[in-house]
Amino acid sequence: MTDVRSKGADEKFCESCGSAIKTRAAACPRCGVAQKLEGKSWTAALLFCLLGIVGLCGIQRFYTGSWLIGLLQLLTLGGLGFWQLIDLILIISGAYHDHKGRLLVK
Ligand SMILES: [Zn+2]
Questions:
Q1: In this structure, are 52 and 89 located in the same domain?
Q2: Model confidence pLDDT, tens digit, residues 19-36
Q3: Fewer CB within 10 Å, N- or C-terminus of the chain?
Q4: What's the distance, CA 73 to chain centroid?
């Protein structure tokens, strides 16, 4: 018999049946219950990124855990706006990752 309480680094336990499933799984393959996705909020990251319009650049990086890049963006006015714009495009297109490599959760 397999131990359902052991999981790999990219796995989590199903909220319903407790079996080990992939962290990115939208639903449990065993019981079919939809899973709550872990990660930072897409909406919050977008709003923080839009603060760049008033000169507060890099706040989205602080929010998503990339402190060093956030600090650099803050001190360089978001790379004179270009770096901030790239982040904004990444967030809107859904390709932005947090410091753990996870996509934002919508
Ligand atoms: Zn399950």
A1: yes
A2: 999 888 889 999 999 988
A3: N
A4: 19
